[in-house]
Amino acid sequence: MITPISLRALLGAALVSTCLAAAAQPVKVGIAQDLTGPFAALGAEARDGFNLAIKQLGGKLGGVDAEFLTQDMAGNPDAARQLVERFIKRDKVDFFTGPIGSNVALAVGPALFAEKIPYLSNNAGPSQFAGSQCNPFFFGTAYQNDSYHEAAGRFAASRGFQKVAILAPNYPAGQDSLNGFKRGFGKPVASETFTKLGQLDYAAELAQLRAQAPDALFIFLPGGMGINFIKQFVGAGLSKQTQIIGPGFSADQDVIRAVGQPMLGMFNSSHWNHDFDNPASKAFVDAFRQEYKRTPSIYAAQAFDVIMMLDAAVRDVKGKVSDREAVRAALRKANFKSVRGEFRFGHNQFPVQDFYLRVIRQDGAEINNRTLSKLMEKHVDAYASQCALK
């Protein structure tokens, strides 16, 4: 016979057992990687940034065991939608991150938002999610697309360039890039050209540029697109008559390593550089160089920050990631040490941050970027006013 006291004891033991079982469940993070396709070089950098942070945290988040479920989706929106469906229904992930391309971010966002799964975008920052389509569960942890290019436009205006051509691939981030540059430049541009996403042969575009002879050329061509364009641009002798300007995505370590000497003298804008003098950045750069024997890129730094932000949020909610509203509040606080230094979100859950001018220089045996000056301080993106979040 079970007495009332025994029954209470049994129920109490069962409750403790249930709580321990719940606590034993690992936090699950879905990471959609780009290891093939148009963003492969960028995706490899992000992968290494993710992995370094995961290693430093001992495979845990906030002291809780974590599973990091990774899958290559090759920058393909359709493949990414299917992957996200598996992450949601089969794997029951608590967080999502990974895609490089804004076209993919826009494709997978709605399914994640419907399930209130926080999506921390380690790279893509489409204008839609910063403005009218902002969502409580989307965190643009890196930047809003236009901002990088707006900073480059301000630099071009400050140097007095009069005849400026602009060029980018025709997809959401490319469209945002040219809009951002024009906003920062503040004057009409001489020509505006959209190329195909993933294009590698630029003979036709180079012929047009030779005929136009602009003072400066702004390009947004990340990864292999930028590598091929810059090689062809310099090889055609156009760098002698036209100053090339870009965002950091077209002039970072992944491009520099592949192109080499022709990159020297290229100005570019960025929200981070390997020479930043703050403790978190210096520790990250040292650890990355030791682990991978190379200097980290923007993409690696952004991915590293995402994992550290997740670690802080899981710690702040004491591992109770099923409480989505508490998790969202913790993420908004951004209670972690960013490689960028001070970090805070605006009301649309995109960073309010500084942007810098960099130039590519020879640094001993290595060619890399040197930070020159600040272009924009505590910049709020152009779409934040359209976001209804509070």
Number of strands: 13
**Average of per-residue pLDDT values:** 92
Work out the radius of gyration: 23 Å
Structural class comes to alpha/beta
The N- and C-terminal alpha carbons lie at a distance of 57 Å
Global shape? globular
Biggest beta-sheet profile: 7 strands, mixed
Order of helices and strands: HEHEEHEHEHEHEHEHEHEHEHHHEE
Fraction of helical residues: 40-55%
User: How many helical stretches?
Assistant: 13
**Major sheet: arrangement of strands:** 8-7-9-10-11-12-13
In terms of quaternary structure, the protein is: single chain
Task: Give the low-confidence spans.
Answer: 9-23
Strand proportion, as a percent range, falls in 15-25%
Describe it for me?
By secondary structure, the chain is an alpha/beta fold. The protein contains 13 helices and 13 strands. The strands form three sheets. The protein has a seven-stranded mixed sheet. A four-stranded mixed sheet has the order 2-3-1-4, sandwiched between helices. A hairpin with a 2-residue loop joins strand 2 (60-61) and strand 3. The longest helix is centred in the N-terminal third of the chain and has 21 residues, at 4-24.
